[in-house]
Amino acid sequence: MTATSPASASRTSAMRRAAVRATLAPSVHNTQPWRIHIRPDELSIRADRSRQLSVLDPTGRQLLISCGCALMNARVSLACDGITAAVTRFPDRRTTELVATVTCGDAGSSESADLAELDGFVEQRQTNRRRFSDEPVPEDVLELLETAACLEGAELFVVRRPEDRVTVAALSQHADDIQNLNPAYRAELRAWTTDDPDRRDGVRAATVPHVDAGADDEVRIRDFDARGTGGLPTATHSSRNQTMVVLGTTGDTAEEWLRAGEALERVLLEIARHGYAASPLTQVTEVPTARAQLRRELRMIGYPHVLLRIGHAAPAPASRRRRLVDVLVEDPNGAL
After folding, report:
1. 30, 40, 54, 306: least buried by Cβ within 10 Å?
2. pTM of the entire structure?
3. pLDDT greater than 70 at residue 89
């Protein structure tokens, strides 16, 4: 039997930790649509197409954005352990199931040092659907978020102009109305919302507002209260006057979607690091006509993927996570 060197054992331990941190990433409807394979010195993230939302996400764009968020968490974790991640995206061009492989690169770089600072906020980051304060996010923080997105090859468009705020609010309401007219969409939404205390995926009732006529949202928060058991206050008052940003990428391909997820999670971790909360409002990017109009009206060069509301809010309940045994596959011999 060949003895494992201390350095190799340390890298293996770092890969295991990175895999666990990856599972804490946000995902569309908390579907957690990934499987993570660990080999000595290598981690791979694979899309779990069985968890794709066929009505809301027929192209798999949201699924790959979710996988990109998991990839960013893995990179952040490795950086915290002093390891620069060497990432290969879609290493096998014959399939989009294997979305990325991560191997141990050289000793920590300045980029990995910046990422390492975010590791302490992986568990603190939560999607927050509570009422936000109307206090604007300072410009210096917004500039930092724009830089974070840019470092991952994405664009963060801050909705600053009053007329742009009106446009975003109107398109958000329009897209939400279109989706809710579709019985298949509503059925899919019900399938991925739950008040079952033992369920480990989907959107928990405790994390969503109870919906009735008093929400008073100008920018629609998705109605996850499928059973009337939402645990958060009804009055969310999601307003066009609150801080809103749109994350986009230059292209609209599978690799761009994955990178959008990496950028999104980096931005979300920076938001948490600066003491703010965030709520994705993606209906406007899920309806093709609304998405195209949003891109045109905001004068975006690239393609919009996620609308984010940012502000101060009371802490949100945490989402649950699937059991590691159902997500992680480890092969100590490297023969997966």
Report:
1. 54
2. 0.92
3. yes
